Amino acid sequence: MTKVKSLADLKKMKDSLQSKVDLREKGENPESRVQIKVAMATCGIASGAKTVMEFFIDELAKRSIDSVVTQTGCMGYCYAEPTIEVKLPNQEPVVFGYVDKKKADEIIEKYIKNGELVEGIIPVNYNTVENK
Q: What is the dihedral angle through the alpha carbons of 54, 70, 129, 119, rounded to the nearest 10 degrees?
């Protein structure tokens, strides 16, 4: 366990633990919440996925949107990092590429709040590939 040397260290530890508790509590019935998965493989992290993930966590909480934000590994869209997958309740997931804070804000305001599709969707192609 790390040593707490200041009030800032204590707050940072509290926030970290609180997010883990929130994730466990929300994980019981994720289908009823907005689910966001942020690709956090090496290419995603190098492209700014950590900043995007923190933005989603903070902004969804500020806007009181019932959601769970998690990280995932590579989704195979290295050319379009940072990438995220958004799943609205009772809908198919949608993958967005080239997501920065500005695009993340647009996704929250237009897609998550109003169901309006925005630029940056990566087409799903795995349903068209034949398994051999």
A: -30
114 part of a folded domain: yes
In a domain, 6, yes or no: no
pLDDT in tens, 85-102: 999 999 999 999 999 999
Q: What is the CATH number of the domain that holds 64?
A: 3.40.30.10
* pLDDT surpassing 80 at residue 82: yes
pTM: 0.74
E strand or H helix at 101? helix 101-106
Contact (CB, 8 A) for 95 and 75: yes
Range of the domain at 40: 32-132
Q: Compute the radius of gyration of the chain from its Cα atoms.
A: 16
